Amino acid sequence: MTHINIPVSVLNLVPIRKGQNAKQAIDSMVDLARAVEEMGYTRYWIAEHHNAPTLVSSATALLIKHTLEHTDHIAVGSGGIMLPNHAPLVVAEQFGTMATLYPNRVELGLGRAPGTDMMTANALRRSNGHESVYTFPDDVQSLLTYFGPEEQQSYVKAHPGVGTQVPIYILGSSTDSAYLAAKLGLPYVFASHFAPQQMSAAISIYREKFQPSEYLKKPYMMVCLNVIAADTNEEAKYLATSLDQFFLNVVKSSSMPLSPPVENMDQYWTPMEKGMVESMTSAILLGSKDTIRKQLMNFQELYAVDELMAISYIFDEEKQKRSYEILKEVVDER
Hints:
The protein is of the alpha/beta class. The protein has helices at 22-39, 60-69, 88-101, 118-124, 131-134, 136-146, 176-184, 199-209, 233-252, 271-280, 289-303, 317-332, and strands at residues 8-12, 43-46, 75-82, 106-111, 168-172, 188-190, 221-229, 284-287, 307-311. It contains 12 helices and 9 strands. Helix 8 links the parallel strand 6 and strand 7. It is globular, with a radius of gyration of 19 Å.
């Protein structure tokens, strides 16, 4: 049997489940972090979304700090900080402070999208107009400098931040960021969990164009996938209807909390909506342990990624933990 021995990590958007309030969603975030830390997951990242009433991940740095406080050793980071919304110096100060409090545990994933709709993006913007989307490469460079050694700094410095060497990851859902991650010699994380269409092209571009740097000698490719693992294929398919409902809300621009699974999704979506959801969620590991193993082996034969980041929209928190447990068991098999 072929082994799939790769690091696995977790992404969390901090959804509010039906019947929960915002505080309970944050408590669930911490509870899951503790569980996956115990399972031996590599890192736990928290996303940034704004004006999304069913996601509690707007103040990402605060949630990272809260998670660091309540865990012992797992690396905690952003998946990601959306740079158009933030001055790089402020990000450097926040993450430099956390890195000072929790050495070698803080990570910074960076995205170039605003993580929200355009009206909200305008309310968040640090400048008039949308030029901050186009300054993304310069902003990334600024952050690399702020976290770097004293002798590479200019007059403006991040205190604390200088010398903390907070590791930076470039996030992408299209091929644009693949070129940047390759040029800067940084690790690259592709968002296949909602935008799988350009994954294959982005992986190829990143690997072909990669230039070794002081941060990384060879490409480090991470892919984020939806993972719904259960003890049987039937149970996994049933649990996955919460994921279907989550993405149906995205398609319909509605604000429903993460909902319990249902017997038949055809009562909830039109054929067109079903097609849209399926195109967004086609990059998925779904099924029993045996099925997940086969799917992951097939995926690795095609892409040979260096690390898998899993997101599991499962309503029942114990079943969500079980899903992560099954995935970890698969990659740990000898």
